[in-house]
Amino acid sequence: xxxxxxxxxxxxxxxxxxxxxxxxxxxxxxxxxxxxxxxxxxxxxxxxxxxxxxxxxxxxxxxxxxxxxxxxxxxxxxxxxxxxxxxxxxxxxxxxxxxxxxxxxxxxxxxxxxxxxxxxxxxxxxxxxxxxxxxxxxxxxxxxxxxxxxxxxxxxxxxxxxxxxxxxxxxxxxxxxxxxxxxxxxxxxxxxxxxxxxxxxxxxxxxxxxxxxxxxxxxxxxxxxxxxxxxxxxxxxxxxxxxxxxxxxxxxxxxxxxxxxxxxxxxxxxxxxxxxxxxxxxxxxxxxxxxxxxxxxxxxxxxxxxxxxxxxxxxxxxxxxxxxxxxxxxxxxxxxxxxxxxxxxxxxxxxxxxxxxxxxxxxxxxxxxxxxxxxxxxxxxxxxxxxxxxxxxxxxxxxxxxxxxxxxxxxxxxxxxxxxxxxxx
Length: 425
Ligand code: ACO
Hints:
Blueprint: E1 2-6, E2 9-13, E3 15-17, E4 23-25, H1 30-34, E5 54-57, E6 62-65, E7 68-69, H2 70-76, H3 79-88, H4 94-106, H5 114-119, H6 127-140, H7 143-147, H8 151-176, H9 190-199, H10 210-223, H11 230-240, H12 245-257, H13 264-278, H14 282-290, H15 311-327, H16 332-346, H17 348-352, H18 360-370, H19 377-397
Antiparallel strand pairs: 1-2, 3-4, 5-6, 6-7
Helix pairs in contact: 2-10, 3-10, 3-19, 4-8, 6-8, 6-12, 8-9, 8-19, 10-15, 10-18, 10-19, 11-12, 11-19, 12-19, 13-16, 13-18, 15-18
The protein binds acetyl coenzyme *A.
Acetyl coenzyme *A binds near residues 229 and 262.
């Protein structure tokens, strides 16, 4: 029990303990008992829900999905198996895995009418805009499935979204470069199939190396969920109103787009390119960041929750090095990134603020070396995050006690005033 004194009155609030011993105070009765609300701008200290999907210990750089460490999953699992784990809460047995995999294959094609929607977008439309619009559109093609509460329809909707988001994303890219859309190939595994739809030509099929598909699997595994981040909280908020899975996930895509969130993977590579092209030294660039020159941050550094290394960045750095070694390629941007990292980690500005590389610091370089164009980077993040958004939608939708999300505010505007007719103003 936690005790608070408000206006001379003592109020008791239950203490909540999570399964990893995290502590919270349940203040849901504060307003009804005292007239006060809590104010926590940007939710830096607000637990918005109880969730059994992902555990993060930001002080020690720990990330687990459903109890499994991210390091072990990245090493041993595939994106599809991890997606199943995140959504359903356990690793699938052979039968469950095959069923899930068959559902993904059965739903990988888009309705042919979909082409007309693509034709409505200008060539230069950002693929994130196309993705969010198209995810909502997917729901329109099978409305009877998402509108009822039959559990097997959840399975179909989840599989459709995971499978088709990849088809939609690749098709958006093909349209943007004026190339024909490639149909998915049922013989290819998830990552390989995506790369085929991105890079095959009708006259020449694309074959990715195992190192490339492994790196892409790791990239997606590491993006599969990250508890109550900006886009997932958006998905939960929209879902809490009773909105369907497609609408909720489309909202998640919009939230992810910003450069402080999913857009950071693109922003990191743009930053590295600028450093390379301008010839500025890494030290001088870091000094500019420290002077807080307008609009300048060390992109891919810092995190609301991790006050230590983001464990995903270490795994991705290794995956990138392995992929480059296998192909015999080098990437001058990797050298700049590593120098930046070393410089920042030695610098008092970053040390005292506990700013470490986050998931985006190396993820963009993986994508670049796979050949993914820059404006598709955040789309790649969205494909990976889909299982997490679906799992959170499920958690909200299956909670019989779920209420609509509705934060309060402290009003700071004008007090009551009288309307003045237009001519007298
Ligand atoms: N470069 C320079 N300074 C930084 C950085 C950075 N990347 N990140 C934080 N700081 C500074 C802030 O200016 C602030 O300094 P001050 O104390 O002198 O005012 C201090 O560190 C605390 O930062 P906040 O902005 O309060 O941290 P917050 O938790 O609100 O933001 C965020 C976290 C958005 C990730 C921030 O660190 C950032 O903008 N990083 C760069 C963008 C990025 O990489 N985003 C991806 C995040 S991971 C993801 O969403 C997938």
